[in-house]
Write a structure and sequence with these properties.
Length: 513
C-alpha cells in the first residue's frame, strides 16, 4: 500500500501544517458547537478531505466522551468512515457528478432521511467548484436550512469559482501549504518507522519538489524507498527523483549574461533540433530568470525556490556575479514579452532568437531602460550603440553632402545592401527589424517603409535611430535623404486610396472624403 495511504492521518493530532484549523475544529467538537456547513479550501494534497473524514469520525464516534474531540478509531463507525464505506457519511466527487440531477438524487433527497446508525448524516463534497450553476442553485436551499442531523463539508482547490451564496452559508477554513520544517520532520518520522535512513540532502530535495503538498512529498518518498535501499543517499535518489532541466536554463542564460551571441543562437537552434517544447522551455526560462533575479538580492531565498543540486547551487551563485538586480529585471521583462509572442509566431523559436539578438547585440550595461516601458504596446527593445556617432560627426557629414539629384526607388535598392551592411555591423538588432520592413516608394528624397507591427515603426522612428539611418542612406546615395515608416495596414490603405484617386481621375472625377 502506498505510503500516503498507510500514513494518512486518522486524528486531528496527526494532521500537519494546519494547526490554525484543527485547533478550531477540536474546540467546536469538544463543546458540541459544530456548524451545519463547512468549506475547506486550499491547494491539493494538504489535508482537506482527510480533515473532513476525521471531523466526520469525531462527530459520529460513539466512544467519544463529552469534552473530548478525537475519534477512537476503534469502533465500527470510525472504521467504516476511514474506509469510505459508511452509509451515513456520503463522499461525493463533484468532478464526476456535476449535474443537477446528481445533486437532487445523492444529496437533497438523501438529506431528508435520518442517519441509519450514526448521530449525523454527513456529506463530504470534494472539488465542489465543479458543480454546475443549476446544481449549486438546487443545493442552496438544503445547504441554507439543512435538517439538524445533517452536516455538509465542502472541499475545493478553487474557492473563487463558488457562488457567493454558497460561500456565505459555510464556515470557511483556508488550508495552506505545509511549511518546510514541518514537512522535513514528518518525512523523517515516516522514514524511521519504515526502518530507512535518508540523507538530509535527499529530504531537502523531496521537500522542495513537494512544494508544500504532503501527498506529493510522500509519493516521492515512496518512490525512493521502493529501491529497497535501507540507506538512501543523493546518488540513489538521483536515479528516482524526477529529473530537472534547470541545467538547460542555466546554460542559455549564462550565454545571455556573457553576451555570447553565436553560442546562444546555436543553443536555440539545438532546442528545435532536439524537439524541445519551445513554449514550455520559455516558461521554465522565466521561472529560472525570476530565481536568478531573487538570487541577486538573497541567494538563500533563491535556492529555496528551485530543486538544485550542490553543483547547481554553486553555479547559481557564480551567475549572480555576471549580472545586477536591475539588469535581471530588464532581462526578465524582455523574456516575458517575447514568450508571449511564441503562440502567434510563425516559427516558435523566432521570439527566442529575437530575444537573443536584442540582448546579446547590446554592449551597454543596462539593456532596456525602465523609462522606455510605457504601456504594453511598447516593446522592450534594447538600446542601440547608435549614440556612438556623435552629434558633431553627424553635423560634419551633413555639411559635406550636396544634393545632386532626385533619388528614385531603384537608386535606394541599388545601395540597399551597402546600407544594411553598415547597420548590421553597428547594431544587429536594428538590422533585424529593418529586414522586416518593406521599401514602398521614394518620394521627394524621402524613403518610405512599411512594417508589420507598430513596435517596429516606433523603433525605426525613434529620433536617434531615425537620424542615424538617414545619415547612412545620405552617405550611400550622396544626397540628403529622409525616412518615413508606417504600419503595413496603413500602407495598404494608402495604396488603395491612390488607386481610387487614379481611377477617379481617369473618369474625369475626384474622390470626395
Amino acid at each position: 500500500m502506498a505510503l500516503y495511504h498507510t500514513y494518512r492521518p486518522q486524528t486531528f493530532a496527526d494532521i500537519i501544517g494546519q494547526a490554525h484549523i484543527t485547533t478550531t475544529l477540536e474546540n467546536q467538537v469538544k463543546k458540541n458547537k459544530t456548524a451545519h456547513a463547512y468549506l475547506f479550501s486550499g491547494p491539493r494534497g494538504v489535508g482537506k478531505t482527510t480533515t473532513a473524514r476525521i471531523l466526520a469520525k469525531s462527530l459520529n464516534c460513539p466512544n467519544r466522551k463529552d469534552g473530548n474531540f478525537e475519534p477512537c478509531n476503534a469502533c465500527s463507525s470510525c472504521d467504516e468512515i476511514s474506509a469510505s464505506r459508511s452509509i451515513d457519511v456520503i463522499e461525493i466527487d463533484a468532478a464526476s457528478h456535476t449535474g443537477v440531477d446528481n445533486v437532487r438524487q445523492n444529496i437533497i433527497e438523501n438529506a431528508q432521511f435520518k442517519p441509519t446508525k450514526s448521530t449525523y448524516k454527513i456529506f463530504i463534497i470534494d472539488e465542489v467548484h465543479m458543480l454546475s450553476t443549476a446544481a449549486f442553485n438546487a443545493l442552496l436551499k438544503t445547504l441554507e436550512e439543512p435538517p439538524t442531523f445533517v452536516t455538509f463539508i465542502l472541499a475545493t482547490t478553487d474557492p473563487h469559482k463558488l457562488p457567493l451564496t454558497i460561500i456565505s452559508r459555510c464556515q470557511r477554513f483556508n488550508f495552506g501549504k505545509v511549511a518546510d520544517d514541518e514537512m522535513k520532520k514528518y518525512l523523517k518520522t515516516i522514514a524511521k518507522k519504515e526502518d530507512t535512513k535518508i540523507d538530509d540532502e535527499v529530504i531537502d530535495r523531496i521537500v522542495r519538489k513537494g512544494e508544500g503538498c504532503a501527498r506529493d512529498a510522500l509519493s516521492l518518498l515512496d518512490q525512493i524507498m521502493a529501491t529497497g535501499e535501507k540507506h538512501i543517499t543523493t546518488d540513489t535518489a538521483s536515479l528516482v527523483l524526477p529529473g530537472t532541466h534547470i541545467e538547460m536554463q542555466m546554460e542559455y542564460v549564462e550565454y545571455l549574461l556573457t553576451k555570447k551571441l553565436e553560442p546562444a543562437l546555436s543553443f536555440v537552434h539545438k532546442l528545435v533540433q532536439d524537439g524541445v517544447n519551445i513554449p514550455h522551455f520559455a516558461t521554465e526560462l522565466i521561472e529560472f530568470e525570476r530565481v536568478l533575479m531573487i538570487a541577486t538580492v538573497d541567494l538563500h531565498l533563491a535556492e529555496h525556490e528551485l530543486d538544485l543540486t550542490k553543483e547547481a547551487k554553486k553555479q547559481l551563485s557564480e551567475m549572480t556575479k555576471l549580472t545586477s538586480q536591475i539588469d535581471m529585471v530588464h532581462l526578465l521583462d524582455l523574456t516575458m514579452k517575447r514568450a508571449n509572442e511564441i503562440k502567434s509566431s510563425p516559427l516558435p523559436q523566432l521570439p527566442l532568437e529575437m530575444l537573443t539578438i536584442e540582448w546579446c547585440a547590446n554592449t551597454s550595461q543596462s539593456h532596456t531602460p525602465l523609462q522606455n516601458h510605457v504601456a504594453d504596446t511598447k516593446p522592450n527593445v534594447p538600446e542601440t550603440n547608435i549614440h556612438e556617432v556623435t552629434k558633431t560627426t553627424l553635423k560634419e557629414k551633413v555639411k559635406q553632402i550636396v544634393s545632386k539629384n532626385t533619388i528614385t526607388k531603384a537608386d535606394v535598392e541599388t545601395k540597399w545592401q551597402v546600407c544594411m551592411n553598415i547597420v548590421e555591423k553597428e547594431t544587429p538588432s536594428l538590422a533585424f527589424v529593418l529586414k522586416m520592413a518593406h521599401l514602398d516608394e521614394v518620394d521627394a528624397n524621402t524613403i518610405k517603409f512599411s512594417v508589420p507591427y507598430t513596435f517596429h515603426q516606433e523603433k525605426l522612428m525613434d529620433k536617434q535611430i531615425k537620424n542615424r539611418l538617414e545619415t547612412i542612406f545620405t552617405d550611400a546615395l550622396e544626397t540628403k535623404m529622409k525616412i518615413d515608416v508606417i504600419v503595413q495596414e496603413q500602407a495598404e490603405q494608402d495604396r488603395q486610396n491612390q488607386e481610387l484617386e487614379n481611377l477617379a481621375s481617369a473618369l474625369g472625377g475626384e474622390v470626395i472624403n
